Amino acid sequence: MKTKLNYTLLLAFFALLTFSSCQDEVIEITDPSSEQAFQADSNLAALISDASINDGSSDNIIDQSSELSVNLPITVTANGMQFTINSEEDFNLIEEAFDEFEDDDDQLEIQFPITVTLRDYTEVVVNNQAELDNLRGDSTNEEEDDDDIECIDFQYPITFSTYNIHFQLIDVVTIHNDGELYRFMHNLEAGVLVSLNFPVTMVYKDGTTIEVNNNLELESVISDARNACDEDDDNDWNDDDFTKERLDNLLVSCPWIVHDVRRDHTNLANDYREYLMIFNEDGIVKVRARNGDMLTGTWSTRVTDHGAKITLDFDSLVDFTLEWFVYEIRSGKIKLYTDGGNRIILEKNCDTVVEHTIERIENILKECLWRVARLEVDGSDNEYDYIGTPLKFFENGVVKIRVNGELVSGTWDVLEYNGVFVLQINLEGRPELQLEWVITFLEAHVIKLESQENEMVIKRHCPDGDEDVKYIDEILNEGEWEVALYMDENVNETDDFYLYVVDFLENGWVKVTDPNNGIIDGSWLTYRNEEGVLKLGLNFGIEPPFMELNNRWKIVDISNNRIELKDYSSNGEVEKKLVFERL
Fold this sequence. Notes:
5 domains, nine-stranded antiparallel β-sheet, Lipocalin, 40 strands
């Protein structure tokens, strides 16, 4: 008996020695015991297996099944728009196509063949929609509970030691991912004992971790996590699975700008554009109108089986007073919707200050240059007159506009009337600016103003803080240029600019010398717009032929000797192309 025991220990020792000699690093192996070893038919084995099942819920917008996942990349057509889906982030492209209209019939077509992965990590090639439907079977039933535990996962790698019934070491297996763990657990043979080498780290769905040191702790942690989060196994990709608490916290986190309003299929966006909503924790919601008026109402939320709802109630804002279904929640945006053609779109803006002061407005105006991005007066579009001609607000009420390299001086002031802030501008020769402009929207980078039926938008321009703008300015400042190409809707009009010499000067003056040594004055400004696109604004007034170049051109290519500019139509097609080359 003694000899047999020694022989068994000797075999275990040589097996362990042989295994260790083949490894690049030392793995600490837990000593086997009845408490730490378990078999394939144990409750712990079942829990570990359930935690490693392939979760197919993240791509339900494509396959409408949590029982399988689609291997990426694939190509799909959503409501007539084709997308190549390379990652889970690209699922948003499909959702945006579906969300464009709330009351349409969303259609998704998959470009077959595709490969899908089942819950047991088996991969299957699917050649058409019928095969996919057959493979899903009844898996689209959202009411049935599934076995997979998605609220917790192992932090890999982990190692298992396997033993026979005599606790003799058979193997040590290193696991790197859920797929390997699932296959390992399901391939365990009857009678084989398994011991997980502790400690191991478990990761919850929210990213927090917990260290586990034995089987009892592991079984408890996985069991407790089974229903600890919303696994999002349904096919409602718009619900974002917000709890009431999370929705409430989001609403009160920052002010919200009203982006769109529709009631009874009537578009009211212009009536409520730039209105600001502030949700307070006490159930009070305040709405600041463009004229500065503050309207007060109440708000409350509830979560139903069909998603979250928010109730708004105002005495004087009837278009908002309704119980709204929270149709979509995504980063920075909330969409509210009810039957009958009613919807509200709110955009989060934490930079918006609800309570302005004259001092704060003045400080913002004095920070940088301001370019006129929109100007409509008496029904006429005047913004093109201000391309390349920024405003600068100075101390002591002095404002200057840079035209053809020269500064035209005037005065400015900020006034307050019953909580409404007004910007007054007085510039010689600029009557369209000399109005009492009500400040309807103010941020550090954009100010929107109205005066009766007139409106103006000015946007901040700080050239010293943008290295790309400084680089382009330096290239343009060096030497003289010629128009090497000008295309207007596929018509080549380059010859109209033959022998003209263009000189971009540092003070914003673009000096053009004509073939007869005459001078055409113009203004230029390089800037980056709110989408991050680099632009070159050119303004030659009514001087032919250069008046044709008045535009906010997109800079598509620049080198020391060449700059290429393009202008695009509303549907994204190139309408005009302009190329300057150095002489």
